[in-house]
Amino acid sequence: MGMHKDCERVLLTEEQIRTRVKEVASQVDRDYRGKNPLVVGILKGSIIFYADFIRCLSMPVELDFMAVSSYGSGSVSSGKLRIKKDLDRDVKGRDVIVVEDIIDSGFTLANLKLLLTERGAASVRIATLLNKADRREYDVAPDYNCFDIENEFVIGYGLDYNEQYRHLPYIGVLKRSVYEK
Ligand code: PRP
Fold this sequence. Notes:
By secondary structure, this protein is α/β, with parallel strands linked by helices. The chain is built from four helices and nine strands, in the order E-H-E-H-E-E-E-H-E-E-E-E-H. A six-stranded mixed sheet has the order 4-3-2-5-6-7. Helix 2 links the parallel strand 2 (38-43) and strand 3 (62-69). The longest helix has 18 residues, at 14-31. The site of 1-O-pyrophosphono-5-O-phosphono-alpha-D-ribofuranose (PRP) has 16 residues, from strand 2, strand 5 and helix 3. Residues 42-45, 70, 73, 100-108, 160 line the site of 1-O-pyrophosphono-5-O-phosphono-alpha-D-ribofuranose.
């Protein structure tokens, strides 16, 4: 399959992603041996990474999902995170692994970490596919990170622009002409 016409270039190939996701997930697998973590996917961007990630884990895991709104992200005066879909499971006493596709300003994860800790999680760690460290405005860092990337508009492997491109199996840089028109 060729590159999508709206892509300027491929940033991370399927092969690069597959290899690195396996490496990072193996690390998580070792760190959580003998535990029973609750793996929380943040909808929707994380779904592809999530599906590949959990299949590398050998301990018993429970799956759960949240949908949150990053509205207000970037503005320091913004309030708390808006929860669009909450967890089904109680996190009290649980080891929670939050799975994200990307950390940008850090607004979403800084707030989520706080929320899950307030709810009594025994531990909260973050696994992310992509990390845009230069964009950080909130004090949060991933415990497990697959790739550090520059500040470019990336799509594919779960990431979207206007809900498009999530299904692309690689990560591409979106052409400027697409979002500047
Ligand atoms: C993205 C991403 C994170 C958040 C990161 O979600 O999945 O949740 O933004 O940005 P932050 O670090 O500045 O908070 P988005 O709101 O685009 O929703 P989606 O996952 O459904 O695409």
